[in-house]
Specification:
- It is a single chain.
- The protein has 4 domains: about 5-60, no CATH class; about 75-235, Substrate Binding Domain Of Dnak, Chain:A, Domain 2 (Up-down Bundle); about 245-390, 3-Layer(aba) Sandwich (Rossmann fold), CATH 3.40.50.2030; about 405-620, Rossmann fold, CATH 3.40.50.
- The chain has 24 helices and 16 strands.
- α18 (about 450-460) packs parallel to α24.
- α18 links the parallel β11 (about 435-440) and β12.
- By secondary structure, the protein is α/β, with parallel strands linked by helices.
- The longest helix has about 35 residues, at about 75-110.
- The strands form 4 sheets. It has a 6-stranded parallel β-sheet. A 6-stranded parallel β-sheet has the order 13-12-11-14-15-16, with helices on both faces.
- It is globular and about 65 Å long.
- It starts with a helix and ends in a 5-residue tail after the last helix.
- Helices cover about 50% and strands about 10% of the residues.
- The structure holds FE(4)-NI(1)-S(4) cluster and iron/sulfur cluster.
- Iron/sulfur cluster binds near residues 49 and 199.
């Protein structure tokens, strides 16, 4: 195997498909990354500003050139503002996704969304009661209508705090109140972040960063949490199910459809269509043995969690999956969809279709999905994918899939423990399990694909630390076999014993990136059961290969919620030692947790283990 390919990804399917891509003269994300090198040092350090047109400006990190932008902003202000705007964009993305689910719920309530329905009525009632909506004497649709309205209010202008903040432990809420960072409206915090970073508004790097935490919290305990809860209500709360991962999930003799993006609003309707009898018959009439739906990225995770749909790959696999020549159609919604995909698909017979009014891509047909036409549109697209099956050229599916178990919602995890977190707390207390870590986030061509996720997860489970993961991290560890039914044997003796007894893997798939809120809810359940704050727990977060603005927002709400979080790639903040120090040290006294940056996953594992042991000592637990 060519060393270049092995240097780009640890995955066998990735390496073989990189070879295929080169043979087919397909340019990939890694080629374009190399073409960009060396990347701009000012931007890498966060020292360039183009917020206004007196600029663009840049600050000389060596102190010889300019130390102020045209307006007078120094390095601290410029770095802080840039980071703040990343967080605002990330929070906006997740929260807008959440809003789309509210709209579906509302249309379901009004009988205008054929194909969608309430699939978890019990959860609907539970969440409604958190919003102060009683279910007495009301049918599900009435409750849904009122819940949709109440959630919309969470997005708007108002003075009180977001409804779901009440899920956080009391001590945590006091921290936020004292700092004045309890988020109000979801959109409000993002709008205020953009306002404060306009030229001539907030020019104090500390108060800017505090608002960034509030903005991130409005995502974690607001927009993303609403997205997850409504997805469960509309599509079912995940339960463990067996699935398969990597490019080997594509089937040579079946129609292969890939869904890519984030919102289950589209992918669930495609799944429904793929399972319909008449379309299966149509596929058979074209000589296909079936219709094989698989996912990439987070909309794939949504389907995997709820229906055991197979997963073809994570972020850096999205181009490569097309080079198999086996994909008859790729249907995308939004976020993390590389604008290069249409060009890659043009080398094969693959049809590319975009579906969201807010996300269009070169080289893709646009077929807009709305709640009232989605079921119908999905059927039309699946039919066209079937018709495209006969246009296939040569097909190359170089690996066998790996089996994996997914579907670990908080409800499932607590259910497996007998309804309360107590067994988990007992295991933590006795030291059978040392702690728990959430590994989240993306791939990034700066880091060998999956190396960060897999190495970190391996070291943690070997040392009796339970891992929960989401997003592209969850796909990485699944490809590496950590979610296979026999994966418990990869864990240390304590964790292995517990996983074997419960019949679960040592790395639990908790869902897509909006589902990181499931980790917040689980951490809150543990903290509440112990009568303590999240920041006292022997837990940590990590994003070993993150790339996106959404990931910065996630990291920030983890830290603001009291979870020590280790980033792999360095965010663009090194131009201000003040900002770096606040994020990596100062926040300890503010929110009881900090960021740390460690691109080497072996070192990250050590740092996390040290942190967990320190928290154990703090709680008086045995060494
Ligand atoms: Fe995107 Fe969610 Fe990152 Fe993967 S992990 S690259 S954000 S798909 Ni969300
Ligand atoms: Fe330059 Fe200030 Fe304008 Fe930024 S806001 S581009 S630093 S003048």
């Amino acid at each position: 195997m060519n060393d270049t390919y092995a240097g780009r990804t640890i995955t066998r399917d990735g390496q073989l498909l990189l070879e295929k891509a080169e043979k087919d003269r397909v340019e990939t994300v890694w080629d374009r990354f190399e073409n960009q090198l060396p990347q701009c040092g000012y931007c890498e350090m966060g020292l360039s500003c183009r917020i206004c047109v007196m600029g663009p400006c840049r600050i000389d990190p060596f102190g010889e050139g300019p130390q102020k932008g045209v307006c007078g902003a120094d390095a601290d202000i410029i770095v802080a503002r840039n980071l703040c705007r990343m967080i605002a964009a990330g929070a906006a993305s997740h929260s807008d996704h959440g809003r789309d689910l509210i709209e579906v719920l509302d249309e379901v309530a009004k009988g205008k969304a054929a194909g969608y329905r309430i699939r978890d009525a019990e959860k609907l009632k539970r969440v409604a009661s958190e919003y102060g909506i009683s279910s007495d004497g009301k049918d599900d649709l009435k409750i849904a209508e009122q819940l949709a309205y109440a959630m919309q209010e969470d997005f708007g202008t108002r003075k009180k705090a977001l409804t779901l903040l009440r899920r956080a432990p009391a001590k945590r809420r006091q921290v936020w109140d004292k700092l004045g960072i309890a988020p109000r409206g979801i959109d409000r915090e993002t709008a205020e972040m953009m306002h404060r970073t306009h030229m001539g508004v907030d020019n104090n790097w500390q108060s800017l960063l505090l608002q960034a935490l509030r903005n991130a919290l409005s995502d974690g305990w607001g927009g993303s949490m609403i997205a997850t809860e409504l997805s469960d209500i509309l599509f079912g709360t995940p339960k463990p199910a067996t699935t398969a991962v990597n490019v080997g999930v594509l089937k040579k003799d079946q129609v292969n459809i890939i869904v890519h993006g984030h919102n289950p609003v589209v992918s669930e309707m495609v799944l429904l269509a793929c399972r319909s009898e008449d379309l299966l018959q149509l596929a058979a009439s074209k000589g296909a043995a079936g219709i094989n739906l698989a996912g990439v990225c987070c909309t794939g995770n949504e389907l995997l969690m709820r229906s055991g749909v197979a997963m073809a790959g994570n972020h850096l696999t999205t181009e490569l999956v097309l080079t198999t020549g086996a994909v008859d159609m790729m249907i995308v919604d939004y976020q993390c969809i590389m604008p290069s995909l249409g060009t890659v698909a043009a080398c094969y017979h693959t049809r590319m279709v975009s579906t969201s009014d807010k996300a269009r891509f070169p080289g893709m047909e646009h077929r807009e999905f709305h709640p009232d036409n989605a079921a119908e549109e999905a059927r039309a697209l699946v039919k066209e994918a079937i018709e495209n099956f006969t246009n296939r050229g040569e097909v190359y599916i170089p690996v066998e899939p790996v089996n994996a178990v997914g579907g670990f919602s908080v409800e499932t995890i607590l259910g497996a423990l007998g309804g309360t977190p107590q067994p988990l707390i007992d295991a933590l207390k006795s030291g059978t399990i040392r702690g728990a870590v959430g590994i989240v986030g993306c791939n990034n061509p700066r880091i060998r694909q999956d190396f960060g996720h897999v190495t970190l997860a391996k070291r943690l489970i070997e040392n009796d630390i339970l891992v929960v993961d989401t997003g592209c991290a969850a796909v990485a560890t699944a490809k590496a076999g950590f979610k296979a039914s026999d994966a418990a044997q990869m864990a240390g003796p304590g964790l292995r014993g517990i996983c074997s007894a419960l019949g679960i893997p040592p790395v639990l798939h908790m869902g897509s990136c909006v589902d990181n809120v499931r980790i917040l809810v689980l951490a809150s359940a543990l903290a509440n059961a112990l009568g303590t704050d999240i920041s006292d727990l022997p837990i940590a977060g990590a994003a070993p290969e993150w790339y996106s603005e959404k990931a910065v927002a996630i990291g920030a709400y983890f830290v603001a919620s009291g979870v020590y979080t280790v980033l792999g790639p360095m965010p663009p903040v090194t131009g201000s030692m003040n900002v770096v120090k606040l994020l990596t040290e100062g926040l300890q006294d503010v929110v009881g947790a900090t960021f740390s940056v460690e691109p080497d996953p072996e070192k990250a594992a050590l740092a996390i283990r040290r942190h967990i042991e320190e928290k154990r000592r703090g709680l008086g637990l045995p060494a």
